[in-house]
Amino acid sequence: PAGPRAAMRLAALLAALRPVLPLVLGLSLGCSLSLLRASWSQSGGEDQCPGAAGRPGPLAGGAHLEAADARLGPGHEDFRPRIVPYYRDPNKPYKKVLRTRYIQTELGFHERLFVAVLTSKATLNTLAVAVNKTVAHHFPRLLYFTGLRSAKVPHGMVLVAHGDERPIWLMYETMHYIHQHFGSDYDWFYIMQDDTYAQAEQVKALVTHLSINQDVYLGRAEEFIGGDEQARYCHGGFGYLISRSLLLKLHPHLDSCRNEILSVRPDEWLGRCIIDFLGITCVSELQGQHYHTYELAKNTEPEKEEEEEFQAALAVHPVSDMTLMYRLHKRFSRIQLDRAYQEIQDLQMQIRNLTSLTPAGEAGLTWPVGINAPFLPKSRFEVISWDYFTEQHLFSCPDGSPKCELSGASKADVSEIIESALEQLNSRYQPLLRFSKRQLLNGYRRFDPTRGMEYTLDLLLEAVTQKGHSHVLAKRVSLVRPLSKVEIIPMPYVTEATRVQLVLPLTVQDLDFVANFLDMFAMNTLDTHDNALLTLLFIYHPYDAQRVSQVDVFAGVKAMVGELEKRYAEVKIPWISVKTEVPSQVKLMDIVSKKHPVDTLFFLASVWTEINMEFLNRCRMNTISNWQVFFPVHFQEFNPALAYRGEQTASSSTDFLRDGHFDRHSFAEACFYNSDYMTARTKLAADILDRDEVLESMEVFDVFLHYSGLHLFRAVEPGLVQKYALRSCNPRLSEELYHRCVLSNLEGLASRSHLAMALFEQEQANST
Predict the structure, then answer these.
(1) Cα gap 263→168, rounded to integer Å
(2) Domain finish residue from 331, 351, 366
(3) Where is the signal peptide, in residue numbers (predicted)?
(4) 502-519: per-residue pLDDT in tens?
(5) What CA–CA distance (Å, rounded) separates 30 from 475?
(6) Dist. CA 515–CA 690, nearest whole Å
(7) Which of 167, 451, 613, 719 is the most exposed place for a label (fewest CB within 10 A)?
(8) Residue 471 sits in the same domain as residue 521
(9) CA–CA distance, 345 with 326 (Å, rounded to integer)
């Protein structure tokens, strides 16, 4: 019985271990293979590989590998990451690490291309201006260098005057200036003369295909007169490209070159300097990239030039006058445009050929080919509406009126799209038919964010055959103006550390809301130690101002301010008293502006505004001195009596913007710098002279809109929420301001559905 009992115990043990048996076997197999691999590695370290006689074998620590890498030279380092441990000496005082302003500075990134144009007294106001008008805006940074003293700079140009017109001295000073001011900021430096036409886009494309790790001296290579046959210099008339590494190596030798090298031509002098001290000669081809040039003959007609050498040229020289420069620019712009159209057609053909291989087949081919498909709304609230227009009127006006005259940019847009439609029709049907426009019957357009502006035109056309027979017909055409390449607009640097000066105008009608404003200001700025100050502007009616010694209508507000100053000892809230019947926003701002420094960042608030840190930071970031002002569109909550009708209000944080609307009629809130306001206000004063009554019909927004060249940033601001309150509209203001105030009150009552429900309930109650 002992034998069967032991067998039963063994079977029970195996049954219990069966679930973990694969794990045990896997661990055993893994340990065995690891030990076997270790023994192979140790035995392999004792023998050398066949054919590697004399080379030491790799050791476990990698010492021989490092030695082999060292023998390969500095250009073949092993770029393996290393963790550098942080260590701070406890005996030294701690210093705060100062971060750079931009991340590209901290990472050591450089801008791509810097362009220097050499000009002279005779050509500064002619050829240099032509260069500035044709290609300067295509380059990221372009400066003009001249030897004139105190030269008058043409509009829109940045000129560096060295004060010596000798050509060699001008070249020496230019290279020294470029190294000193831009040597650490750019990877490539392109030097050209003002009698050179350079294709900016081609030059920029060239530097993107070249390695920045090499010393590059690229241009049209020319032989020295009576010099070495192997040495070449880059002809200055056709421009030349110098890499940053070459400029850094050349700079220490510039003084020696100036004293030792004699030459008449500045480009020869620079080429000899580079060859003698760096041993680098000019080349016209590098890393598979060719620097194509074209030398213009006398009396050349750019419009008739069809040579391949001309069309492929990056630089053309010599350009004798401004007119020729403009004609060259027009010709090369047409060449680039034709190339772009041909490339688009080739890509569209490839897309058509490949569409049949896709799962959707030819049904998935969109129109126009290569453009995103139209936006498909998922609900009726996402439907993009069409705007109807004719050649004279637009039936979707910015001010909300049903019909307005077609003018300005909209009129130019409609005219251009009709001309484009006729051009496309004639190019498709000629020479069989030739179309001319009789009338635009109907026009529709809408902006699709996924593809661009879409148009549908019903045209009344006259079609003429080759035999001269004509026929009038109506035809519908569809066109798309696609979104072009997205550009990143450079903006000046701003921080969130700027102090914000809040300005709060108060009238007698606003007294019921001041307490809530001050409570929110204290909670969101004073308690959080935000860098924000407050100035109150008490607007007295002349009748109240006469009785201020007996009854001060703002006494309660002043008492609340005193309590705040006692609670926060370091805070001072000043106030300014003004007597007026018409509280013009501009006149009030004039008073405040004179009492603050020019670099003050103002936030013009209203008593219903609930101040919070999120909005103040956006006010700081969206307002840029001498560049941009910010006019936020606050969110206005609806009247709770109509929106909820006795029900509990929405308290969820995700629904706080549900029952209200963004009040686009209100311009009461604004963020701007005092210096920008003073500049615009000076222009306004010169325009209106002594007619101060004009100021009553204006707001601060109008001052910046009409009398400043700044960007006006008008955007919805979800961080600026106002509770419902019926605003008092002053009839003494202008008709437009009073009308906007009334509209703001009416649209702030409730939504259409809320108003409809309220009317329905009222009718039900009246009927019963």
Answers:
(1) 8
(2) 331
(3) 1-22
(4) 999 998 888 888 999 999
(5) 78
(6) 39
(7) 613
(8) no
(9) 29
Domain hosting residue 160, numbered range:
107-331
How many angstroms separate the CA atoms of 124 and 322, rounded? 11
Instruction: Look at residue 101 and tell me if it is in a domain.
Output: no
427 and 297 together in one domain:
no
Least confident window among 236-245, 448-457, 634-643: 634-643
Backbone angles phi, psi at 652, to 5 degrees: -70, 140
With beta carbons less than 8 A apart as the criterion, state whether 217 and 234 touch. Answer: yes
Q: Is residue 99 part of a domain?
A: no
Span 221-240, mean pLDDT?
86
Cβ-based neighbour number of residue 657 at 10 Å = 14
Instruction: Indicate if 469 and 420 belong to the same structural domain.
Output: yes
pLDDT-derived band at 581 (thresholds 50, 70, 90) equals confident
Average pLDDT over residues 583-592: 89
Residue 548 is part of a domain; what is its CATH number? 3.90.550
Task: Please count the CA atoms within 13 angstroms of the CA of 620 that sit on its side-chain side.
Answer: 17
Q: Whose CA is closest to 436, among 455, 457, 422, 421?
A: 422
Q: Which residue has tokens 């604004």?
A: 670
Report the CATH number at residue 120.
Answer: 3.90.550.50
The answer to the question of residue 619 being in a domain is yes
Q: Give the global pTM.
A: 0.60
> Of 482, 508, 534, which marks where a domain is finished?
482
Distance of alpha carbon 325 from alpha carbon 332, whole angstroms: 11
Q: Cα–Cα distances in Å, from 497 out to 503, 534, 602, 629, 694?
A: 19, 17, 14, 17, 37
| Amino acid code (one letter) for 502 | L
Closest to 234 measured CA to CA, from 245, 246, 223: 223
d(CA 763, CA 753): 15
Are 220 and 234 spatial neighbours (Cβ–Cβ below 8 Å)? yes
For the beta carbon of residue 537, count every other beta carbon within 10 angstroms: 19
Which band of pLDDT confidence, cut at 50, 70 and 90, is reported for residue 67? very low
The answer to whether residues 517 and 477 belong to one domain is no
In this structure, the answer to whether residues 258 and 119 fall within a common structural domain is yes
- Count of domains in the chain? 3
Q: Check whether 44 has a pLDDT greater than 60.
A: no
Q: Is residue 159 part of a domain?
A: yes
Residue 334 has phi, psi (to 5 degrees) of -65, -40
**Residue 229 CB neighbours (<10 A):** 7
Q: Hey, is 733 helix, strand or coil?
A: coil
Whether the CB-CB separation of 568 and 526 falls below 8 Å is answered with: yes
Give pLDDT tens digits for 683-727.
998 888 777 777 877 889 999 999 998 999 999 988 888 888 888
Q: Torsion angle of alpha carbons 330, 333, 338, 342, nearest 10°?
A: 180
For every residue of 396-427, DSSP letters joined together read: S-TTS-S-EE--HHHHHHHHHHHHHHHHHHHH
Instruction: Tell me the pLDDT tens digit for each residue of 207-221.
Output: 999 988 889 999 999
How deeply is 710 buried, as exposed, middle or buried, from its count of CB atoms within 10 A (0-12, 13-18, 19+)?
Answer: buried
**Domain holding 420: CATH number?**
3.10.450
Residue 99: is its pLDDT beyond 80? no
List all residues 6 or more positions away from 10 whose beta carbon is below 8 Å from its beta carbon.
none
Residue 406 sits in the same domain as residue 551: no
- Residue 3: pLDDT band by 50, 70, 90 thresholds? low
Q: Are strands 285-286 and 289-290 parallel, antiparallel or unpaired?
A: antiparallel
Look at residue 331 in the predicted model and tell me its pLDDT.
94
Same domain, 667 and 537: yes
Tell whether 701 and 635 lie within a shared domain: yes
Model confidence at 108: pLDDT above 80:
no
